[in-house]
Amino acid sequence: MDTVQSASGLMAFTQAYVVAMLWSSTDDNGDPLDQVADVDDLAPETIERINQDCAAFLAQNGEAINGKYEQAGHDFWLTRNRHGAGFWDGDWPEQDGVKLTEASYTFGECYPYQGDDKKWYLG
Prior knowledge:
Elements: H1 3-24, H2 33-36, H3 44-65, H4 69-80, H5 94-106, E1 112-114, E2 120-122
Antiparallel strand pairs: 1-2
């Protein structure tokens, strides 16, 4: 894979990860996060962590992802946080789904929360 494909793949993966994070999370009032926040509301530390986690996951699992960057980014968020859907639910070949699920779990769970500065962090 050339550098341009790698960069565009990582971008697609990361964007899908953020969309899944915002879609599947809620604020303290129970409102869906994607209705009250967007990427501009994420703290710089949150963006850096997202970028690091996504780059590391993709680097370790690119072969199993096999170019399905958007689906993989979405499933990485859901799987690592044990949302009841993700790599293991049948959309991936079984062997890849197991590998990607196990890899996701090594990153641990994280959930967005709003800081006093009104920016969103991952805890």
